[in-house]
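Before our next group meeting I need something from you. Please put the record directly below this note.
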Amino acid sequence: MSLRSNHPVHSPLDDLCRRDGQLKLVRERVGEPLAWTRPATFATFTRIILEQQVSLASAKVTFDRLRSACGGVINAKRILTLSDEDLRRCGLSRQKARYVSLLANDVRQRKFSIAALASMDDHEVRQSITERMGLGNWTADIYLLMALRRDDILPIGDLALVKGIQELDPSVGPSVDAICERAEVWRPYRSMATKMIWTLYLFNRNRSTAIVS
């Protein structure tokens, strides 16, 4: 007896497109979403901090400079060898330099375990991250989605997501309630839908996908 199913295997994105005709049209227009994945590391937290309130392209330039200053690998130990002036020369603002240094201190002093986040539920991860100076709900959402690859994350504080949803569906207002209501149909795969919206956002602006990796 064959155990192979005769039924087609549908991906989460297939399911989303069946339920959301506008998302289906986006998929037909831009193709499959970009991966939007990053390793679950201190370097990823650093990059997310750098991406706060600036473009991905600008943050990547600063991140690459910082990586060079760290000898090719960004981790807590190497960050703590750099002075505030070193961080500023890499392009970090005074505030972001402080956030990165404080996070490095917390990791080295074992007040914050990045490895432990993988075994926590979404709420526990969010609580642990937002207890850190300069790391709020947006940082937690991006880390949950990209690094821990949780399925149902909607980073409502993300400007590209808000604008992308409005480009997907012009009837949606900019309020948190409006965005959340529009995204209800995407449960329990709001992370995948978010990746699709981000891909649409870049596509509409002819942005390079190199800034994602």
